[in-house]
Amino acid sequence: MTYIIGALAGAAYGSLIGFVKYAVLWKKMLGSDKNITMPALYRHIIISSIINAASLLLIFLLRNVIPCDFVATIIAAAVMLSLVGKLTPVREIVDQVEEKTE
């Protein structure tokens, strides 16, 4: 039972972090009227990776405090961070950069 609770908690946490990251990082870039440059795109990708690593590190650091299974929690959080990352329109941003550089 703790595996299921851990998986659900990790999925909720990963989804929340992923959606907040999208709203703060990527949606702002899509709504911007400025030209999107490759260095700005790379900077956002690096920041996104750092946020993912930090959110998983937080679960690791709290592994003795959380009342559910640690492994199920961190795996579910990592999967949801990845899935939410795949749902963000990064491809659309890259296409905008490619169009402007041609």
Structural key phrases:
single chain, 102 residues, mainly alpha, 4 helices
Summarize the structure.
By secondary structure, the chain is mostly helical. 82% of the residues lie in helices and 0% in strands.
What does the model show?
Helices cover 82% and strands 0% of the residues. It is mainly α. The relative contact order is 0.23. The protein has one domain. The chain starts with a helix and ends with a helix. It has helices spanning 2-31, 38-61, 70-87, 90-101.
> Which overall shape is indicated by the principal axes computed on the Cα atoms?
elongated
The helix tally amounts to 4
Low-confidence runs of at least 5 consecutive residues: none
Count of the separate structural domains: 1
Strand content: under 5%
Q: Kindly report how far apart the N and C termini lie.
A: 55 Å
Derived from helix and strand composition plus strand pairing, the structural class reads mainly alpha
Average pLDDT confidence is 84
Helix/strand order: HHHH
Could you tell me the radius of gyration in angstroms?
16 Å
Oligomer: single chain
Tell me the number of strands.
0
